[in-house]
């Protein structure tokens, strides 16, 4: 089997970052796809996203490099700062020095803008690929293919890729492993227009403030006219209804009371601009993703904490790899096995590294001695090239 021999379309549950990237990779290889997205209209929420060089390299292979760069900010320098003094504890260059070292840039952009770039690119290649209002409700596999029941009718295909996020219906149908688990972290996030800040000229453009059991990340988006702000806290439990809700501003201010004026400016900017409080949820590792003609990619397969900024990156890498494997064949089941053989170890390791980094940065000022090095990211994920890594290795 090669791309020309996919008689039935590849079905993809979920039109988020993972699903759209997989669809683009497949359509570019000549494989027909149907993306089944539950939302009735296209809209991506959740503030902004950082794309490390491994993510931008993979997105470049999908032919959207220029549109992506046009929509992004290129951060020039990043620092970890002390939550009370505001002093830089460690700093490193980004911009061209990262691009020279890894051959692809580190970019930051609004999730809505990334989503638009992906949807436009898919639409230009196949205006019929994306089906909205198609919430996946049931799945049956049989000898020759897969049948998927959705709110918009039944779809038949040669295989199904579950790209439907941390609350994946496809994962539930395959493994029935219940609701996701609260990780012990909450995040308040929002995009703050620079006019809502007391000091819009802050430097550097990317910073993480480290405090005891709390961190605050900020970086510029949209041509420097806005700032993405994410404030994290370790907490005992998640007692709220649902997993994302408008922030209680008194609670947010209290959680970051006494922080340096630059961090306080971000918190007040969030309060002024509107912020949501998110519970961060994860899942135990799945030993296998594939069952026959169905497999999982992105958060559906391996949700991870955001502390390495690699959740979307891993979803994009998965998407590029699963598309390459399916386009090559020789048949759907061995292609999905090939994808899993390459992706499972890397994604599983990154989940563990994100957990460990989260603990280190939230505990540093609680348990570390004054001489312990500041726990900065070692960028170990950045080298991987999803577009060229050998499928047979
Ligand atoms: C606070 C925070 C900050 C983050 N920052 C970064 C970052 O800087 N860099 C980074 O790389 N990652 C980051 N991440 C992680 C990143 O957002 C996720 O890993 C990424 O969005 C996963 O993409 P996905 O397509 O797998 O899932 P999702 O983005 O969740 O998309 C799933 C899609 O499936 C649809 N869907 C769900 N159920 C169904 C169904 N039954 N039928 C049909 N459709 C369905 C949904 O509507 C959605 O469109 C962050 C996460 C958080 C929480």
TrEMBL record:
Q: Where is the FAD-binding domain?
A: 9-353
Instruction: Identify this protein by name.
Output: FAD-dependent monooxygenase
Q: According to its UniProt record, which cofactors does this protein need? A: FAD
Which key words tag this protein in UniProt?
A: FAD, Flavoprotein, Monooxygenase, Oxidoreductase
- Which domain of life, per UniProt? Bacteria
Organism from which the protein derives? Pelomonas cellulosilytica
Q: State any single GO MF term.
A: monooxygenase activity
């Amino acid at each position: 089997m090669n791309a020309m021999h996919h008689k039935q379309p590849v079905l993809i549950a979920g039109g988020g970052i993972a699903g759209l990237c997989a669809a683009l990779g497949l359509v570019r290889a000549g494989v027909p796809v149907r993306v089944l997205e539950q939302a009735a209209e296209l809209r991506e929420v959740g503030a902004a996203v950082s794309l490390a060089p491994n993510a931008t390299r993979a997105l470049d292979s999908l032919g959207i490099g220029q549109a992506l760069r046009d929509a992004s900010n290129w951060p020039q320098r990043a620092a970890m700062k002390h939550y009370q003094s505001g002093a830089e504890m460690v700093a490193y260059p980004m911009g061209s020095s990262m691009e020279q070292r890894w051959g692809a840039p580190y970019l930051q952009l609004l999730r809505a803008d990334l989503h638009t770039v992906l949807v436009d690119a898919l639409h230009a290649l196949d205006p019929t690929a994306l089906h909205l209002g198609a919430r996946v409700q049931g799945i049956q596999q049989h000898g020759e293919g897969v049948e998927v029941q959705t709110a918009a009718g039944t779809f038949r295909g040669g295989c199904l890729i579950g790209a439907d996020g941390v609350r994946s219906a496809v994962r539930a149908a395959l493994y029935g492993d219940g609701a996701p688990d609260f990780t012990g972290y909450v995040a308040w996030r929002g995009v703050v227009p620079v006019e809502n800040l007391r000091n819009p000229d802050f430097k550097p453009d990317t910073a993480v403030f480290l405090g005891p059991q709390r961190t605050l990340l900020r970086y510029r988006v949209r041509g420097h006219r806005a700032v993405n702000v994410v404030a994290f806290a370790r907490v005992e439990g998640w007692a709220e209804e649902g997993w994302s809700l408008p922030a209680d501003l008194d609670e947010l201010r209290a959680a970051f009371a006494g922080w340096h004026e630059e961090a306080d400016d971000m918190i007040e900017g969030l309060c002024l601009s509107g912020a949501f409080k998110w519970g961060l949820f994860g899942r135990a590792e799945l030993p296998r993703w594939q069952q026959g003609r169905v497999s999982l990619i992105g958060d559906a397969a391996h949700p991870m904490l955001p502390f390495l900024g690699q959740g979307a990156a891993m979803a994009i890498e998965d998407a590029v790899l699963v598309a390459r494997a399916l386009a090559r064949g020789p048949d759907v089941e061995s292609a999905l096995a090939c994808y899993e053989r390459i992706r499972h170890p890397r994604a599983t390791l990154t989940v563990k590294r994100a957990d460990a980094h989260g603990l280190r940065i939230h505990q540093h000022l609680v348990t570390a001695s004054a001489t312990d090095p500041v726990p900065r990211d070692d960028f170990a994920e950045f080298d991987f090239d999803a577009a060229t890594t050998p499928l047979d290795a």
